[in-house]
Design goal:
heterodimer, A: mainly beta, five-stranded antiparallel β-sheet, globular, B: seven-stranded mixed β-sheet, four-stranded antiparallel β-sheet, 11 strands, 51% strand
């Protein structure tokens, strides 16, 4: 069984400030971890993913996340928030089902507000 | 390359009416998925199709049926719509094979209101 907990359904930051969105997961097998972004009235778009290898993962739009196995965390960060970062962010975890398909469990999402 | 497309974008139904949500992908992906998104609940899996010709229930399948018509198309049917099915529905596809793929591609969503 796998699950995802996103701490804070709403986060507000000032433009130019650090963005930190928290995600903790549980998984019975080594996890694949994802962050997706959803802009208003759009579908989800992959920001970044961790599968194996380097634990610090860089994504699009200046975002990065670090996989910390000991803390079961995969927090998303960006050094300097931009107005265009205002969106909803979803953390997700999956393992590879033996059938070759991917079953993904999503967190409830964090809405990021950027204040000018 | 259109990716994942969904029709319609918006729909309003009355309780008891039926409808089919259409989804197609042009990326030659094997597996496809239907999710619903509700405020404060994230995305929940309704049904999935690991490959052409197979379908399986997800977390919240009650009140829905699906058809994997061919490799490209995966439809979701509401036989008798209920207000509890008011939601945003997303279709996604996934390319199985190499572990480095590991990404689901999402359609733009269908916003359904049941009165």
């Amino acid at each position: 069984a796998q699950s995802v907990t996103q701490l804070g359904s709403h986060v507000s930051v000032s433009e130019g400030a650090l963005v930190l969105l928290r995600c903790n997961y549980s998984s019975s097998v080594p996890p694949y971890l994802f962050w997706y972004v959803q802009y208003p009235n759009q579908g989800l778009q992959l920001l970044l993913k961790y599968t194996t290898g380097a634990t610090l993962v860089k994504g699009i739009n200046g975002f990065e996340a670090e996989f910390k196995k000991s803390e079961t965390s995969f927090h998303l960060t960006k050094p300097s928030a931009h107005m265009s970062d205002a969106a909803e962010y979803f953390c997700a975890v999956s393992d590879m089902n033996s059938g070759g398909y991917q079953k993904v469990t999503f967190g409830i999402g964090t809405k990021l507000q950027v204040i000018p | 390359n259109a990716g994942v497309t969904q029709t319609p974008k918006f729909q309003v139904l009355k309780t008891g009416q039926s409808m089919t949500l259409q989804c197609a992908q042009d990326m030659n992906h094997n597996s496809m998925y239907w999710y619903r998104q509700d405020p404060g609940m994230g995305l929940r899996l309704i049904y999935y199709s690991a490959s052409e010709g197979t379908t399986d229930k997800g977390e919240v399948p009650n009140g829905y049926n699906v058809s994997r018509l061919n490799k490209r198309e995966f439809s979701l049917r509401l036989e008798s719509a209920a207000p509890s099915q008011t939601s945003v529905y997303f279709c996604a596809s996934y390319r199985s094979g190499r572990s480095s793929y590991n990404e689901q591609f999402f359609g733009p969503g269908t916003r359904l209101t049941v009165l």
